[in-house]
């Protein structure tokens, strides 16, 4: 069963939680964004442990190392993180159509469109897309957006930036 759109079970306040938000296409909460920022900052300062590199060892050498390891104090190796999609802010973050605001930059087919106005939607899909469907316009470009459609936008500049 898909968890897309499901908020339940997200481990808020963790990098993992942040990824769960993204995977489920639910805008990240502040706690998760903070976790991600803290993690990035730690990585920049070189505090995050490197992923252990796979090593090719001969059977004999491996056996010797095993002997040595059983004698030595056990060392907890960092568990490699689960496979993840590369972090690509340029492909945007998903938000709901109803949350779209003037000034947001829609990422669509690799192009960026900064919304300068909304126009009423007068097409025939209104019943399907829902009340509140509008056309997000950027110059001559326009995109029909239902209130619950998922739209990808560039991350908004934080309003509480220091
Ligand atoms: Zn969260």
UniProtKB/TrEMBL annotation:
Region of interest (Disordered), residue spans: 37-90
Biased composition (Basic and acidic residues): 37-53
Ranges of Pro residues composition bias in the record: 77-86
Entry protein name: Uncharacterized protein
């Amino acid at each position: 069963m898909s968890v897309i759109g499901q908020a339940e079970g997200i481990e808020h306040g963790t990098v993992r939680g942040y990824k769960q938000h993204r995977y489920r296409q639910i805008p990240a909460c502040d706690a998760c964004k903070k976790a991600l920022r803290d993690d990035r900052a730690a990585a920049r300062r070189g505090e995050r442990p490197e992923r252990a590199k796979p090593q090719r060892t001969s059977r004999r050498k491996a056996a010797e190392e095993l002997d040595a390891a059983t004698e030595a104090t056990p060392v907890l190796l960092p568990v490699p993180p689960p496979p993840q999609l590369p972090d690509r802010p340029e492909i945007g973050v998903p938000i709901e159509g109803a949350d779209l605001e003037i000034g947001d930059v829609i990422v669509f087919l690799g192009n960026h469109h900064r919304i300068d106005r909304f126009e009423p939607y007068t097409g025939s899909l209104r019943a399907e897309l829902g009340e509140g469907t509008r056309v997000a316009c950027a110059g001559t470009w326009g995109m029909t957006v239902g209130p619950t459609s998922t739209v990808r936008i560039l991350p908004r500049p934080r309003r509480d930036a220091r």
